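Q: Could you fold this chain for me?
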Amino acid sequence: MTRGSTVSILTTTKGLTGGLGSGMSKLVGVIGAGAAGLMAAGRAASLGKSVLVFEKNSRAGKKLLITGKGRCNITNACSMEELMANIPGNGRFLYSCFNKFNNHDVMSFFEEYGVPLKIERGNRVFPESDHSNDILKALMKYAQGNGAKFIFNAAVKEILCENNQVTGVKLINNDVYELDSVILATGGASYPLTGSTGDGYRLAGALGHGLVTPKPSLVPLETKEKWVSEVEGLSLRNVGLTVYNPEGKKVYQELGEMLFTGFGVSGPMILSASRHILDWDYKDSVLMIDLKPALDEETLDLRLQRDFAKYSRKHFSNALDDLLPRSLIPVFVRLSNIPADKPVHQITKAERRELVKLLKGIKLTVSRARPIDEAIVTAGGIPTKEINPSTLESKLVKSLYFAGEIIDVDAYTGGFNLTIAFSTGYAAGTNA
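A: Sure. Below is the predicted structure, expressed as structure tokens.
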């Protein structure tokens, strides 16, 4: 193909769906070969449409492959009520999409495409193999098996329109493809190294669409307390976390795993917690860490008494090995305000009671979220009021459709965001 050439509908449809010929099949362009784009491409092709997928990377599913630490939490095996409750970002917009293709349909789809699934804690659904590549292979089989064609290393420069109607796309190398409709599935602005660099916002904005300012969601948090850097890399398992917004209202509580970083905290619980304080721009919310959630204060006090009896001749700082990770002990001692060299047998009942409270609630104050390029998901995007919720077609431009993270919808962790991607991809592919 020569630079700047136009590929006609007749030329591009040839061979896409068994040589349908001119005028016999709508030509659909899908921009982005992530979870939403692949589902959209497969669905559109399965309905007899000729499909071209434009992907700026050299391969499909780059972000999909790293989700869930490479295990790919594809959905959540919960009820529809629970599904909606876990989508704080414009969940109601998705009712129509979920009526057509919901979380249980996602599970059925992958099992039909040869991917055995398993359900883990919190109804999280993973491939039995724990390999995200199995999910990608199934989606590629769905799309390519139904005739969709892929063009890689193909960054789209512009969506072409005439009389407020999509007519094609122009690539960054100025190649032009004539199309009947376009599905924008370029993702958000999180994980830019995977290709999610906000391209879709620019493409839609050039056609008159607005933008709800993208914010990081499901993101590590920075804290005002600097001692966290002293325990960088320390992972805590089976601890409790309670989160309060700046007004002191409890907004989240969970039991699970977290990680200390050089700037603050991360890990599964923290990422989930972050979405609950996004509306306050993350600032000044409080995290209370319960190091011993299985023990109430009375039981924990008895445990302390036994440990102190065991180490009665030692200094306070040397009597906590049975209770705490070694790297956390110096920090804990400072937070307790008990001198490190105080003999254990001299610790008073009042001091011991304060230690119990500290074990049940180490306080961290959030200063801000980490940058959006470290977030798992982008909150914000193309306003839902500009998109038909039944068809996912733009209300501003005919034959322009949206799918996935580019839309201003987002959810908590647990497979809910990929469910949105698959469901909106299915809907867009159906209607494009």
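A (continued): The chain has two domains: 6-215+378-431, 220-369.
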